[in-house]
Specification:
This protein folds into two domains: about 100 residues, Beta-Lactamase (2-Layer Sandwich), CATH 3.30.450.20; about 35 residues. It is of the alpha+beta class and about 180 residues long. The protein is built from eight helices and five strands, in the order ααααββαααβββα.
Length: about 180
Amino acid sequence: MGDWLTHHQVASHPIERARQLPRPPGLPPYAQRSAIFTQAPFALAIDDAGGTLRYHNAALQALLGYTNEELRELQPPTLSHPDDLAQSLARIGEIRPAQRHSYVHEKRWRHRDGTWIWVRVTLTALRDGQGALQHTIAMVEDITARHQAEVALRHSEGRARALPAAQALAIMQTDGTA
């Protein structure tokens, strides 16, 4: 056989197996051919040029707690925390006229249960041959645990910085020099 691959070897290759998976109808061609989109463990979403959520994977549903139907009816900005919305819209506004190709933004999104989760959104523009925006694709990562750990660390550091001052005050009060 030499360097030639058998039909079985080709058919069992991960990329070939991905090509043989059923494709969800309606996805753009670049997403149809990709098991990465449909089976990724991280959340993915594709919006049209107007900002309407067109496609998403099961990981986004799991992250946000919404059903497929509920997500299809939501506009992405409605998920954003009010304090994060202006910056998000400004960055998206730079993507549309091709001032930016992509951006990364950490912000809060509303979970279906009403709680806010911290997410890291990496958004990339997908343009046609003339440069016109066709879609944006977003990879969304849950960073809630990391954000909570950072807040706890800052709080702990603040207490640690205040401790020497409190100790000096206690020493001055006990030795009678103050």
